[in-house]
């Protein structure tokens, strides 16, 4: 692929250099040479091509070569084969202009036919002669070199028409790697540690990760999946109102008739405290029993939700719905006692009886 591209580039460049510059050069500078060239051509007009090509404007090119290497070309022709040598340069130089010159449409088809037929037959001779010419006259100028290189391009006559197209990809524009950094003024501000913290909320001080651990997928799932089931609390029952009430020692949040100090609560006792029949609602959480009755009007989830855990352990429900809520921070003043088994109470009562 690379060689093909290089070859196409060379051929196109050579073609343009050959086509345009020579026109300006040949008529201006070398008007006389065409005559000798035309004279030299008749010597080789064994084929019909040379005659047609003589009319082509490409005649001056060979003249340039002859002018520079005119003494050499006759020598080469004399050494190898005089008549073919003279004919070969004429054919090479004239073949291109013959095809390139579009003066008359009628001349083109024969020129191509001649090119096709002649190139196939004469291409090896041309190459040999061209190589001889190159080797013999070391003082060949750049245009001569270009002309010598052109024959390979002429091997494909269609390439002349296609060569009119712009060169494939001579100027390869490599996109300069632009730095991704934006101007200093446009750079986004670095996120501080504070920006990553959750926004403060009214109950922020009351929320802590449950079990002292970080948030897990299970903890975030309920808040993302379920819509808010919060209820509209009555005036005076906001979280702040509850905090104020909990801070008041006269509130007696543990319930009336509860002895001071922690009470040993059996499962049967807990079950009886279900909030019915004018009894306070107790619930257990992590081995501790709380009186949740005073918190019912303050519960953001509503009375019914909170009372679902009345008379039993609410750890599972609590963890499923809002594990981030600081249970102990909210209900610390509602702590009644600790949950014990029925056997423990019986043995204790037996020991008390023995005393
Ligand atoms: C049987 C036990 C409980 C159930 C079934 C329950 C149910 C609920 C429900 C459904 C919500 C609304 C959640 C939402 O916004 O989508 C809620 C919110 C809340 N509950 Fe409970 N709850 C229970 C126990 C408790 C307890 C014992 C406390 C206090 C220690 C409490 C404090 C809260 C708080 C602070 C919110 C607001 C949460 C927030 O704003 O993110 N809940 N509860």
From TrEMBL:
Gene3D superfamilies: Cytochrome b5-like heme/steroid binding domain. Signal peptide: none annotated. Residues 262-340 form the Cytochrome b5 heme-binding domain. Residues 21-228 are annotated as: Disordered. Residues 165-187 have a biased composition (Pro residues). Pfam families: Cyt-b5. InterPro entries: Cyt_B5-like_heme/steroid-bd, Cyt_B5-like_heme/steroid_sf, Cyt_B5_heme-BS, Cytochrome_b5/Flavoprotein_Rdt. Residues 99-122, 132-145, 153-164 have a biased composition (Polar residues). Keywords: Heme, Iron, Metal-binding. Residues 70-80 have a biased composition (Low complexity). The keyword Metal-binding applies. One of its GO terms (molecular function) is metal ion binding. GO terms for cellular component: cytoplasm. Belongs to the cytochrome b5 family. This is Cytochrome b5 heme-binding domain-containing protein. The lineage of its organism: Eukaryota, Fungi, Dikarya, Ascomycota, Pezizomycotina.
